[in-house]
Design brief:
single chain; about 425 residues; alpha/beta; Carbamate kinase; eight-stranded mixed beta sheet; six-stranded antiparallel beta sheet; about 25% strand; binds aspartic acid; binds magnesium ion
Length: about 425
């Protein structure tokens, strides 16, 4: 017998028929003798609609009331799933964030989980009751409802798994696992059987949409074994009968991965915009005077490059920000450069960041070189480069996204046969 957390996203609970399908998945695990806590999102599209309404009501709305509104989507699905389970003869009840409680900080709209008291839940699980828990929501220090940021129910699920010391956290979604790259643009993308926490973290933060980045971070810290699997597989499909078999992708410790590839995946993010300050003054304090105000405005700067100056007096400085932040960033920069010497500010939203990720890079040379060679063979110009121990990212013209990702996928031997 094991203790499981099963998480189902919006597309998996999009209507009553899908909810019945989810209930059948839950019932299967209960019948295998497991203790089960289920975490669900709102029905697909619901949260978008709720967000939209808060904006229409007032663009500058109170963040606490935003949370009051957008947290409701999950209240509907926990209730409906509990009703459906009960109808199928499964002992179940719904739990809202405040009832557990899931304590968070006070950052409304993007709250972080501070503490979950798992005592009540574990008691009920022990009595054979399935806990159906609302994802995405918690209770702030002021006793008001908070939400964890879009896609936050992945994080709820992992946090619950850690709090109740679950043996595994299964993330059921609309794809059947984690792929070497986006299968929509590379037909030869392969499903990975296993991927390490570190690699998954890079994949998620560099653009792969399977899991919310924060949920992977949390899983890594608490060593929660995560499994990504498809909710569209029939609940009685033969693969589910085998307890030792992972039908999706297991996100786990790197020690558990026997055949480690040098490169495990290619991610891309179109959510990038480039800003170049042409011929900006070259003297101590300039970078601080540019990036300080950007940080104060909570604008996340990613890649930064500064050229050597050819006259010793000025230089070009290029950096990237999330695309949606470009207008705000421009505003901040225009204020800053009124106080310093700078010839021109150029912006370009038509860029994409392509990243190659793999733990094997730690011990293999030549990975970056292979990336640069592959891109040059395709005539793709690299505008900026950043690296970490296990990833290399380049900024290129968005027009070449597909070409670059496909070429790199082949070059690193990731294509399926
Ligand atoms: N319903 C929330 C959202 O759409 C949380 C989630 O689905 O994970 O962002
Ligand atoms: Mg999601």
């Amino acid at each position: 017998m094991a203790r499981l957390v099963m998480k189902f996203g919006g597309t998996s609970v999009a209507d009553l028929e899908r909810i019945a399908n989810v209930a059948a998945h839950v019932k299967r695990e209960v019948e295998h003798g497991h203790e089960v806590a289920v975490v669900v999102s709102a029905m697909a599209g619901t949260t978008n609609q709720l967000v939209e309404w808060t904006r229409e009501a007032d663009r500058l709305h109170d963040a606490r009331e935003y949370d009051t509104v957008v947290a409701t989507g999950e209240q509907v699905t926990v209730g409906l799933l509990s009703i459906t389970l009960q109808k199928m003869g499964v002992h179940a009840r719904s739990w809202l964030g405040w009832q557990i409680p899931i304590r968070t900080d006070g950052a409304h709209g993007a709250a972080r989980i501070a503490d979950i008291d798992g005592t009540q839940l574990m008691e009920r699980l022990g009595q054979g009751q399935v806990a159906v828990i609302a994802g995405f929501q918690g209770l702030g220090p002021d006793n008001r409802i908070t939400t964890l940021g879009r896609g936050g129910s992945d994080t709820s699920a992992v946090a619950i798994a850690a709090a109740i010391k679950a043996d595994r956290c299964d993330i059921y979604t609309d794809v059947d696992g984690v792929y070497t790259t986006d299968p929509r643009i590379v037909a030869k993308a392969r499903k990975l059987d296993r991927i390490s926490y570190e690699e998954m973290l890079e994949m998620a933060s560099l653009g792969a949409k399977v899991l919310q980045t924060r949920s992977v971070e949390l899983a890594m810290v608490h060593r929660v074994r995560l499994q990504v699997r498809s909710s569209f597989d029939a609940p009685d499909a033969p693969q589910f009968a085998r307890e030792d078999f992972v039908p999706g992708t297991l996100v786990c410790d790197e020690e558990e991965i026997v055949e480690q590839q040098v490169v495990s995946g290619i991610a891309y993010s179109k959510d990038e915009a480039k800003i170049t300050l042409v011929k900006v003054e070259d003297k101590p304090g300039i970078a601080a005077s540019i990036f300080g105000p950007l940080a104060d405005a909570s604008i996340n700067v990613d890649m930064i490059i500064q050229n050597v100056s050819d006259d010793g007096r000025s230089t070009d400085m290029t950096f990237t920000v999330p695309q949606a932040e470009l207008p705000r960033a421009e505003e901040v920069i225009n204020k800053v450069i009124s106080g310093i010497r700078c010839e021109q500010v150029r912006t370009d939203p038509g860029v994409v960041k392509v990243s190659v990720i793999g733990i094997g890079m730690r011990s293999h040379a030549g990975v970056a070189q292979a990336m640069f060679r592959t891109l040059s063979e395709k005539g793709i110009n690299i505008q900026a480069i950043t690296t970490s121990e296990i990833k290399i990212s380049v900024l290129i013209d968005a027009e070449y996204t597909e070409l670059a990702v496909r070429a790199l996928h082949s070059a690193y031997g990731l294509d399926s046969e």
